[in-house]
Design goal:
- By secondary structure, the protein is of the alpha/beta class.
- It contains nine helices and seven strands, in the order E-H-E-H-H-E-H-H-E-H-E-H-E-H-H-E.
- It has a seven-stranded parallel sheet with strand order 3-2-1-4-5-6-7, with helices on both faces.
- Helix 6 links the parallel strand 4 and strand 5.
Length: 298
Amino acid sequence: MLSIDLRGKKAFIAGIGDDQGFGWAIAKMLAAAGATLYIGTWTPILNIFTTAWKNGKFDASRELPNGSLMEFAQVYPLDASFDYPEDVPQEIRENKRYKDVSAYTVSEVAQQVEQEHGKIDILIHSLANGPEVKNPLLKTSRKGYLAALSASAYSFVSLIQHFGPRMNRGGSALTLSYLASERAIPGYGGGMSSAKAALESDTKMLAFEAGREWGLRINAVSAGPLASRAAKAIGMIEKMVLYYEANSPLKEELKAEQVGAAAAFLSSPLASAITGEVLYVDNGYHAMGMATEVPKEA
């Protein structure tokens, strides 16, 4: 029987901070396929995440199809807004959530992973943040706009820059996008739609450059909305989920595991000729040109 086999593969997943969201679902699918996991967690919540893990708060969510629990080989503090130590402003270094943590910039984490575990095979970018996401684009400041692009799009470029030479040839890097990259989604503001557009454009260019440079594949998954804890910052995620469910060709609510399965496929040798792709995993909503109904709850 044909199956996804990632035994012996090493995967670094950037952007896991709890047991919700697509990053967690992707990690579970990679683990179920046999990959060894290394996790990058946003520096300010590192202790919260590791404490919750040790105390068993994620145990129910960690269960894999074979009944075992998902494990990670190591967790690293990561703030992908900074490429090198000298990029970190003094006020951040002195912040109480940072001052006792070291080596959390992208370059430092990539170097540590290689030094401690050798080259990796799979890189997952599950990072997005827009401090003004609730603001319409017309009311978004330059600072907020650039912050959204930095955290949500350039962070993928930076990860490829620093992890690329530390990945085995034939490796795979994957990012997560959203339909707002190409369609107007009222309420998804603060420059986040622009960041997703940049992210998809960068995926194609990185596929060429990293493919020629290191023999890597670079792809994106454009996922439908998921009411995760992080997504609730948008302020209307529940309405988005209902709207998608009502108007998609497959009239169902998207499950995080479905995105995880697509990511595992793209990260596997089964997808060895696929690169520069933006794969929609949204129950077909992206194909629709007209709404069929608007749920009363929305």
